[in-house]
Amino acid sequence: MIPVVLAVALVPLMMTPSRLREQEEFDAAMGRIANSVVEFVQGISVVKAFGGSERAHRRFRTAADDFVGIFSRWVRGMSLVAAGMQLALSPPFVLLVVLIGGAALITSGGMAPADLLPFLLLGLGLTAPVAALGHGFDDMQAARRAVGRIKEVLQVPPLPEPAHPVAPQGHRVELRAVRFGYDADHEVLRGIDLVLEPGTVTAVAGPSGSGKSTLVQLLPRFFDPSHGAVVLGGVDLREIGSRELYRLVSFVFQDVRLLRASVADNIALSVPHAGRDDVVRAARLANIHDRILELPRGYDTVIGEEAGLSGGEAQRISLARALLADTPVLVLDEATSFADPQTEQAVRRALAALEGDRTILVIAHRLETVADADTVVMLENGSVVERGSPAELLARGGKFATFWRSHRSVAADDAVLRGEEPR
Ligand SMILES: Nc1ncnc2c1ncn2[C@@H]1O[C@H](COP(=O)(O)OP(=O)(O)O)[C@@H](O)[C@H]1O
Ligand SMILES: [Mg+2]
Q1: Interior angle at CA 85, CA 83 and CA 91, nearest 5
Q2: CA neighbor of 168 nearest in space, from 214, 212, 221, 217
Q3: Does ligand 1 lie within 6 Å of residue 205's CB atom?
Q4: Per-residue pLDDT reduced to its tens digit, 67-118
Q5: Could you say which residues of the chain have pLDDT below 70?
Q6: Phi, psi for residue 60 in degrees, rounded to 5
Q7: Model's pTM, two decimal places?
Q8: Is the minimum distance from the CB of 213 to ligand 1 under 6 angstroms?
Q9: In order of start, what are the domains of the chain with their CATH numbers?
Q10: Contacting residues for 96 by C-beta, under 8 A, at least 6 apart
């Protein structure tokens, strides 16, 4: 028993406050290394194209250098105790203890020599399970730390659901003195007043970083404004139950997420019981039907496994999804990088086909789409600087006009305004 007692007596030495602090530092340093590796791998194409490998490596090197210091401190603190335990449980040491004790007992006549044999065999077999217990203990400690980190994530509060949900009347959308910032110091929206009437298309324009995407993400309540309110059908979004809200609002956003599922399932995400006919109709409207038929198994092709889609194609799938959901409020944030002619055309066709009294808010990057809108809202630095019909604003020659002229040739704009198809 002596080796086992010795080993167990050393356990508290592994759990002193300074040891635990070193362990935390060690975990954090491991995390930093893992993050820098992920970042580096994700950015490889950019690094390749711009030759910044020196700089890209630096973050990893800093993390690794940092790790060396922490690791050696961790090992130094740990090694003496660990070595002591290893030694106490090692076969030679057990053998030594049993032999010395046995020899003493035999010479004093307290034990027959043959009786020593079982102690030798059992003693050697006893320490291996104790050592295994030690490893199990380490794993449990690691698991406990991991649970702690997962808990931190789970403890982030979700947007609160209303205790007494109110049903909106109609689908007029109003933004009332809306202010919002992702953090307290940087306000992204600085007091936006906006009314979206049913049956109209409102286009948001403005330079990159002006807050367009942030603004439209308030409609499906991805965030709550810090001041003011977003009101749908006379009811503050915070008082509408989320199921009801998503029955009323659908959206197509810049960073499209497609599931690892069939194309048809991806389109029918919010209407799981939709028939194939409805799915196809939505896909046609979103200008993606022909492309889907080219996939290995058409509508049954599993995205991400059997076929990959380009950014613009993924956006059109996402548009088809929103069209199939057929909600009275539709929010579209067309990505600049995906604004290829087909996607642009799909958006225009879809907007034209969505007759009736839908409330539509769209961020468009081409004048063709903006020209179809009833109202244009020009955003700059989180504030509305101009609003009016597209023709009005272009004629006025203000900020919106300047903004668009800097993007396109005057001739092309005029052609669009005369109603000619874009080339
Ligand atoms: N998730 C986010 N966290 C913190 N800041 C953000 C986030 N998304 C956008 N921002 C910041 O908010 C501002 C407006 O961004 P965004 O709404 O994307 O503008 P736009 O769509 O007009 O280009 C930018 O300064 C941007 O850096
Ligand atoms: Mg944006």
Answers
A1: 100
A2: 221
A3: no
A4: 898 999 888 888 888 888 888 888 899 889 999 999 999 999 888 888 888 8
A5: 52-53, 335-339, 355, 407-423
A6: -65, -40
A7: 0.71
A8: yes
A9: 2-154 (1.20.1560.10), 173-417 (3.40.50.300)
A10: none
